[in-house]
Amino acid sequence: MDIEFWWLLALPLFFALGWLAARIDIRQVVHESRALPRSYLSGLNFLLNEQQDKAIDAFIEAVKIDPQTVELHFALGNLFRRRGETDRAIRMHQNLVDREDLSEEQRLQALAELGQDHLKAGLLDRAEAVFARLRGSRLNDLAMRFLLEIYQQEKDWEKAVEAAEALPGHESVLWRKEVANFYCELATSALASSRLDAARRYLDEAFAVNRRCVRASLVLGDVLVAEQRYEEAIETWKRVESQDPIYLALVAERVMEAHRKLDRVEQGQTLLRSWLERHPSLDLLDEVFHWELEKAGARAAYDLVREELRRNPTLLGLDKLLEAALLNAPVEQRSDIELVKQLIHGHTRRVARYRCTECGFKARQFQWRCPACGGWETYPPRRTEEYDLEP
């Protein structure tokens, strides 16, 4: 194929233009790097090496040299917040919000950072006001998530419901558990102040959101007891077995008290023993043991725990067995059994705690919401020993 003569003239020109463009880019990069304060680069280096104290000092120096650098202010404010110096973080981000030369996007980012500063400092009212300003903006979803956290901390459950329903996916299973628990909190508060009709309305909302909400069944039973409708309360609590049998330990005491009101304690004991046989649980065993000891005596309680220990050997079960044995033992043997029981009890204190399935936080008392990670229903009423024994 013949090569046109003009191509021979054009090729050197293209090479020259490429070389010139490269030189311009290199000069631009060098110029920009020289324009950056050396302390800024030092701060980045310290930050990469996880030396936050030195990074902060370097960034402060860079801000003094070039106070108009927005990125430096953001970086410095975030470092202050991570270190717990919320006062300095608030001042840094507030200065950004007050600046008139910021773009709308930068101002929204500064507001979001300022809201997180207030939240970290525990200034919930100020954090709420800041995130409320972000509603309807491109950071709306972020603002609603933080507002939801604020309302939960403030125990403002009606606003928490509103915030959860404004989040993406609220109509799916994503937020059903949380919203149902918000309504249960409202129902519990209404029940405590004897507003039974209001409690029922909130529980209807909870069931509408999540038909399998165990907590709503528990509280509904409490409402029925307050109305002295014990039969209906027992039937309501029985539904927990089909909803999630792991929570039967929470209704056991309620069920027995309702049966006692109806003068049908033996029927209640039979129900609890059937639950224990189908759904072994240390807390459920403790309740059955208590009533067996009270109504049938120490020997019956001992036989019950011994049989359960054969099926599910646990230290907590052994502790109960020794308690029953101590009541049955002759006087001369009680000191030896008491000694063994004290040794076993010392070990059971470590495994007799509840554990969050999300973050692993442990506590002695059952919680509907984990105090550490804030998850709802992540604290099932099962002792840590039961989890450790699972295959």
How would you explain this protein's 3D organization?
With 391 residues, the protein is mostly helical. Among the domains are: 76 residues, no CATH class; 39 residues, no CATH class. It contains 21 helices and 2 strands. It has a two-stranded antiparallel sheet with strand order 1-2. Strand 1 and strand 2 form a beta hairpin. Helix 7 runs antiparallel to helix 8, helix 10 packs parallel to helix 12 and helix 12 packs antiparallel against helix 13. The longest helix has 31 residues.
How would you sum up the major sheet? 2 strands, antiparallel
What is the CA-CA span between the terminal residues?
A: 77 Å
Radius of gyration: 33 Å
Contiguous low-pLDDT stretches (5 residues minimum) are 19-36, 63-67
Strand content: under 5%
Number of strand elements: 2
| Average pLDDT metric | 78
Oligomer: single chain
DSSP helical segment count: 21
Overall 3D shape? elongated
Helix content: over 70%
Sheet/helix structural class = mainly alpha
Side by side, the strands of the main sheet go 1-2
Order of helices and strands: HHHHHHHHHHHHHHHHHHHHEEH
Task: Give a summary of the structure in a few sentences.
The chain is mainly α. Among the domains are: 155-230, no CATH class; 353-391, no CATH class.
